[in-house]
TrEMBL record:
Signal peptide range in chain numbering: none
Similarity-based family: Belongs to the ABC transporter superfamily.
Record-linked InterPro entries: AAA+_ATPase, ABC_transporter-like_ATP-bd, ABC_transporter-like_CS, P-loop_NTPase
Keywords associated with the record: ATP-binding, Nucleotide-binding, Transport
MF terms (GO), sorted A to Z: ATP binding; ATP hydrolysis activity
Protein name: ABC transporter ATP-binding protein
Keyword RNA-binding: no
Species in which this protein is naturally found: Haloplasma contractile SSD-17B
Highest taxon, organism lineage: Bacteria
Pfam families recorded: ABC_tran (PF00005)
All residue ranges annotated as the ABC transporter domain in the record: 78-319
Length: 339
């Protein structure tokens, strides 16, 4: 993020080129920069006469601080504030009975898939919530979540512009009266995407690869099925969202190609944490967190034997998918041929 010293070294042209939204900020504050684009910011501010400063209520020193704060907010909103990889560390909290969780610490790096398994009501969603809120010993589990080795302050945790975590929940319903294209255009515009048309088509094509049934750019988002909605949001999260951490709560019932969905998210170097009851998804993770009695009971790596089992389960899953599609389109199954 820029400092006041770095800001002083930029010409107006360089400032607008590096932070395009700063131009609107200067216009809104009536800073007279036209014809002075080759001057550095301080030189432009020095040209403001007292009468103009008084008429427009310009406090030069305060303006520079506000400009820095605005740029930092925009960088945070656009997810461009830090290009380094993200690392999440979860420190132990407590089980429902008050005893300490049975592990020392868990560190997760970009590109890793971590699956969260356990009985219904065991605490899987609570763990996802702790990560989403960057818990700091202040949630029911009293866990602590570190981002790149540090706890987040209150402003970072609860700011509406903090896009550290994207979450895909079990229940997803659109309420806006927009087509798929209009929805993606709105999101891309809010992200100040330059090649908006290309990004929209890329998300649309990926979503249709994941969805069990195809949809069009002109389809109203309120008409999408649960699987199509989930496919659209996964593609949107992978391609357009800058959030480095993706939390998924039970993707198995969404009616989408689960393997392609995970491959898409990991290809964008995101950390994926996924609560699941599906054995295929559970074995696709690099690690599994086993939850019981409200806490983390153990953390296990996926073994070579389990990977061999996974390949057989995937083969069975493809057979099931083929059968489902044949039945969906009115065909009949022949047992010997299908198995």
């Amino acid at each position: 993020m820029p400092s006041i010293k770095q800001l002083k070294e930029l010409t107006i042209n360089e400032l607008f080129d590096k932070y395009p939204y700063s131009k609107d900020f200067m216009l809104d504050h009536h800073i007279p920069f036209e014809g002075k684009e080759n001057l550095i910011v301080d030189e432009v501010l020095d040209t403001i006469d007292e009468e103009h400063a008084e008429d427009q209520a310009i406090d030069v020193e305060k303006f520079k601080e506000q400009l820095i704060e605005y740029i930092n907010l925009m960088l945070s909103f656009l997810g461009e504030e830090d290009e380094s990889q993200t690392e999440v560390t979860i420190l132990p909290g407590f089980y429902k009975d008050g005893s300490r969780e049975n592990y020392d610490r868990l560190t997760i790096k970009s590109g890793e898939i971590i699956c969260i398994v356990g009985p219904t009501g065991s605490g899987k969603s609570r763990l996802l919530a702790d990560i989403e809120w960057a818990a700091n010993y202040d949630t029911p589990t009293k866990r602590t979540v570190l981002i790149n080795g540090n706890t987040l302050d209150t402003k970072e945790r609860f700011s509406s512009s903090n896009k550290l975590v994207a979450q895909l929940s079990q229940n997803m319903n659109f309420v806006m009266d927009l087509t798929v294209e209009e929805f993606l255009d709105l999101h891309a515009t809010s992200r100040l995407v330059e090649n908006k048309e290309d990004v929209i088509i890329s998300i649309f094509n990926k979503a249709n690869e994941l969805a069990g049934e195809q949809f069009k750019l002109t389809t109203p988002i309120t008409s999408l099925s649960g699987g199509q909605s989930r496919a659209l949001m996964i593609a949107d999260t992978a391609i357009l969202s800058k959030s480095p951490i993706v939390l998924i709560d039970e993707i198995e019932n969404a009616g989408i190609d689960r393997e392609k969905a995970l491959d898409l998210l990991v290809s964008e170097d995101k950390i994926v944490l996924m609560a699941t009851h599906d054995p295929i998804l559970a074995l696709m993770g690099d690690k599994r967190i086993i939850i019981n009695n409200g806490g983390i009971e153990k953390i296990v790596d996926t073994t070579e034997d389990e990977l061999n089992i996974l390949s057989k389960l995937k083969r069975l899953d493809r057979i099931m998918l083929t059968m489902r599609n044949k039945l969906r389109y009115g065909e009949q199954l022949e047992f010997e041929e299908e198995i």
